[in-house]
Amino acid sequence: MTSQHNVTAATDWWRDAVIYQVYPRSFADANGDGMGDLAGVRSRLPYLRDLGVDAVWLSPFYASPQADAGYDVADYRAIDPMFGTLPDAEAVITEAHRLGLRIIVDLVPNHCSDQHAWFRRGLAEGPGSTLRERFHFRKGRGENGELPPNDWESLFGGPAWTRVPDGEWYLHLFAPEQPDFNWDHPAVQDEFRSILRFWLDLGVDGFRVDVAHGLVKAPGLPDMGHGEQLKLLGNQVLPFFDQDGVHDIYRSWRTVLDEYSGDRIAVAEAWAPTADRTALYVRPDELHQAFNFHYLNTEWNAAALREAIDSSLDAMRPVAAPTTWVLSNHDVVRHRTRLGGGLDRARAATLLMLALPGSAYLYQGEELGLPEVTDLPDEVRQDPSFFRDSGQEGLRDGCRVPLPWRGDEAPYGFGDGGSWLPQPDDWAALTVEAQTGDPASTLELYRTALALRRAHPGLGAGDAVEWLAAPDGVLAFRRPGGLVCTVNTTGATVRMPAPGRLLLSSRQLDATDGEFELPADTAIWWEE
């Protein structure tokens, strides 16, 4: 069975798409085991349609031992039983298309699980196995090979190498349970083109490419020469990231994507030292979009935001790719908490983001104004880097707490069997049910903003903004089509002339006689 690709045709739909990330284990639980699943996702697709998004990106649901929440894939063509079955995945795709939504699935090509058939067989066959050539197996250094082959560090802490009983070492830039593929090997390249076609044949509309910058390693796997390598991520040249060879891989993938009708796309999770390096991933014959981590990491400051916006648009313009904007995802602190200004600032940041030209990514629960859960007890945490020294901070579970749908107490309609991470006791006012129909709620702000974004000619696709004169700490820009956005990043109210008719504000406004007071942490959309 394959999904009929009956989503309304739209040329380059991805250039202004709002794409909603679903973290399946935390979205909705249909079978009452405390863990979200694909049947739960399917049951809530009408909610996403009504929210006003264009596409749904599903984090991994493949067969996996779950050493890293499914980013350790044992079988790229099978569904992990905790999430359901392959027919469940097909049903999600079919129902999404019926509702006018597109489906993007996560693809993890840098590494697999140590339970993947290739890796298990390579281990069993021992040194000299041709299967080991599909990974990075090496002899160790030192008198008896007791030292790792080089000084690379895992992003989750400790060496990026693990020794197997026969004495050889294998490379894993993440957890030891996640061996890196050797992308110089033709079998690896063939396998992933086959995996792309498998899911495209089932009807998916695209792929989010995990660690898109990591597939190719520098020849000879040279030493870094120093420690604390994680601190260099995204701002320095590294021998294991952003090597030029990755672009040949993505050109071959683009050829596969272009074989299929319906504008199928691929989105790069690419940490590169500069915006210009990121732009290389989205040249016309490579991938379609790349995540804008530069913007995500920008502080709540008018000058810094303006610089990030300008540099992002400038980098994408020469390659004719849309700029993407994102504030939250499954790996970072929710922006309501991270930006430091509470819900008012989070709402303002959202309206700013949705007013910018290009494509926007939303992370499940941000439309409810969910804060980061910062007080999870150690015994419930599951982020693998939490249990290792010197790696990432290990606190990614705080943004992965299951969603509150309805009711006054946990699990708030997530499912009938509790939730795999505990939900706070004070989330009753944040449920979908509690916020629906309340014009002051964050959920209704998102619904209104997304409806306007779809309808207004001054919102959506494009590659430029026109900056307008504004007081210090205030951003003001015009979009072609008569849309003006003003944002106050200061801590004080600012009085300004009104540039037009009020369309939407992140907070209640007092506008009189052609002037208005713009409170701190407020964003407004105007129509000229």
Protein architecture, described:
The protein has 528 residues and is α/β, with parallel strands linked by helices. The chain has 13 helices and 21 strands. It has helices spanning 38-43, 45-51, 86-98, 117-125, 186-201, 246-258, 275-279, 293-296, 302-316, 335-338, 342-355, 432-435, 442-455, and strands at 18-22, 55-58, 62-63, 75-79, 102-107, 137-138, 161-163, 169-171, 206-209, 265-268, 289-290, 324-326, 359-363, 466-467, 474-479, 483-488, 494-497, 501-505, 510-512, 515-518, 522-527. The strands form 5 sheets. An 8-stranded parallel beta sheet has the order 11-10-9-5-2-1-13-12. A 5-stranded antiparallel beta sheet has the order 14-15-16-21-18. Strand 9, helix 6 (246-258) and strand 10 form a beta-alpha-beta unit. Helix 11 (342-355) packs parallel to helix 13 (442-455). The N and C termini lie far apart (50 Å). The model is unreliable at 1-6 and 389-394 (pLDDT under 50).
